[in-house]
Amino acid sequence: MRAAVLHEIGQDKLEVLDDVEAVGFGPGKVRIRVRATGLCHSDLSAMNGVLPQPAPFIPGHEGAGEVVDVGDGVTGLKAGDRVLVCWLPACGACPSCRRGQTHLCLAGFMNAGTPNFKRPGGDVFGFAGTGTFTEEVVVGAGCAVPIPDDVPFEIAALIGCGVTTGLGAAINTARVEAGSSVAVIGCGGVGISAVQGARVQGAAQIVAVDPVASRREAALRFGATEAVSPDEFADARQRITAGEGFDYVFEVVGKSATARTAYENTRRGGTLCIVGAGALDDHFQVNMFELFFDEKRILPSMYGGGDVLRSYGRAIELWRAGRIDLESMITHRVRLDGINDALDQMRTGTSLRTCVEL
Which residues contact 182 (CB under 8 A, 6 or more apart)? Predict the structure, then answer.
């Protein structure tokens, strides 16, 4: 089958090959024919080594498709079912799951160390234990989440990561209050979802901050009340909050420099929500006096900070009700052969989300 493979960490191009085989099918596993997958910035981060990932590997973790076959012991799924791919399934038995923090379950991460593809030259890993830049993937049954018939594959794919992450940061983690002021730093697919989450929660002012003009323009269409470049952020803070700072600031870039900017633009007693996935050696620093004196809440948000199955269902209901716009987030569509052009569009910020149709 065909798949897009990164041979070595640090390469910026994927090679589309037709000699890849999905492996590992058996008890408790599901084989999925991928129909659509989104490009998430985490895929780039894994390619360049910011996020740890063994190579060679197939990127992609934001996918949806049809069940081809189910292994022994799998219940609730059958061939032909429409599903989205959950890259962080909950085991239901670990301490995090028993506490109700299923998004912190580590079982899914364990899958990342086991190759789930092979080529004549050897094993190939799937990013985050999945790898959706391919025609078929074998995953644990918990990774295959049924979707209603009225949800298109490309919409389901977005819900599988970016939408759930951004919406959840605003709704689950920060719990944005109605009438509050919000700033979102970084307005790709996840940032735009955070903007929409803040709007759903009833924020009065939502300032989108991004260096790319087209992303700022998009943020306004998705609910931001104002969109500024990083150089204009200080002025926006002064005008909107009288210099006090915003009630909530979301960092959706994954860099210590923007996290520090976010901290400085959060009001005393306000909430800084860290959504971006950064590097192991990039350290965010605050001094002990300001940490005590300013009493700003620093809240990391992992995969939207809540039960992902509930979050998927909520996103679908909000989309059905017209409360969030997911179709317009897909700004580009490509086939697998166009994957490298799509990656370049993400690097330059010309796309919010590109849908790869398989």
Answer: 170, 176, 198, 203, 205, 206, 207, 246, 247, 248, 249, 250
